[in-house]
TrEMBL record:
InterPro entries referenced in this protein's UniProt entry, alphabetically: D-isomer_2-hydroxyacid_DH, D-isomer_DH_CS, D-isomer_DH_NAD-bd, NAD(P)-bd_dom_sf
Keyword Cytoplasm: no
Keywords: Oxidoreductase
Protein name: D-isomer specific 2-hydroxyacid dehydrogenase NAD-binding domain-containing protein
Pfam family, one: 2-Hacid_dh_C
Boundaries of every D-isomer specific 2-hydroxyacid dehydrogenase NAD-binding domain copy: 49-198
GO molecular-function terms, A-Z: glyoxylate reductase (NADPH) activity; hydroxypyruvate reductase [NAD(P)H] activity; NAD binding
């Protein structure tokens, strides 16, 4: 695109992520890159909450057969894990806290004062505990992924991490598909080693698309 538009001087993203913008090429060609941090935080947080409820309540099965084998689990008392501490994650944290959920956060690059009374950007402190590693996901009922897609987060959630989780755990990804290893997710869903998954984005693997298209444990 840059080569086809030699007079281009700015690429403006109507969103936060810039992983689909050739940053180095833009630097080399003196092209400014802008984004809108937090601009869609509330909307994406609402989507993430909707996906969580959809999967937990087995909404797809209810529509298909008009019955469920057991009572669907409620939200009160659930332990929610948030990966990342950006604006979207903060909004999700506020929503699930209102439902009586406990919040555990993994974000090794965020300062310890994040989301506390000392954190000026977030005027309202959010009750939470900090996880020291992804292995702490063992205790959570729902994992929300809210981190950028960079080299260190590509396939951040793979077979090992999914194996740490409860068989009843739900993974919700409204960030980037590449953060989750699609092959590992497909395997876990098919084997019943994961309670369910909801996505506002899907990785390129055709198998994962098929799983999300037909599996009772998946929602999209």
């Amino acid at each position: 695109m840059v080569k086809a538009a030699p007079k281009c001087r700015i690429i403006s993203r109507n969103g936060t992520g810039v992983d689909n913008v050739p940053i180095q090429t833009c630097i080399d060609n003196s092209i400014a890159v802008t984004n809108v941090p937090g601009g869609n935080a509330k909307v994406v947080a609402e989507l993430a909450l909707t996906l969580m409820v959809t999967v937990l309540r087995r909404e797809r099965r209810v529509r298909a057969v008009h019955q469920v084998k057991a009572l669907s689990p409620g939200l009160f008392g659930k332990v929610v894990g948030l990966v990342g501490m950006g604006d979207i994650s903060y909004e999700v944290g506020k929503l699930v806290t209102a439902f009586g959920c406990q919040v555990v956060v993994f974000s090794p690059t965020s300062p310890p004062t994040r989301w506390t009374s000392s954190d000026a950007p977030y005027q309202t402190p959010l009750p939470h505990t900090r996880a020291s590693s992804l292995e702490d996901l063992r205790q959570v009922d729902v994992v929300f992924l809210h981190c950028p897609l960079i080299d260190s987060t590509r396939n951040l959630i793979g077979e090992k991490e999914l194996g740490w989780m409860k068989d009843t755990a739900v993974v919700v990804n409204t960030a980037r598909g590449g953060i989750v290893d699609g092959r590992a997710l497909e395997k876990a869903l098919k084997a019943g080693k994961l309670g369910g998954a909801g996505a506002g984005c899907v990785c390129a693997r055709a198998g994962v698309r098929r799983v999300f298209g037909r599996a009772e444990r998946a929602g999209q």
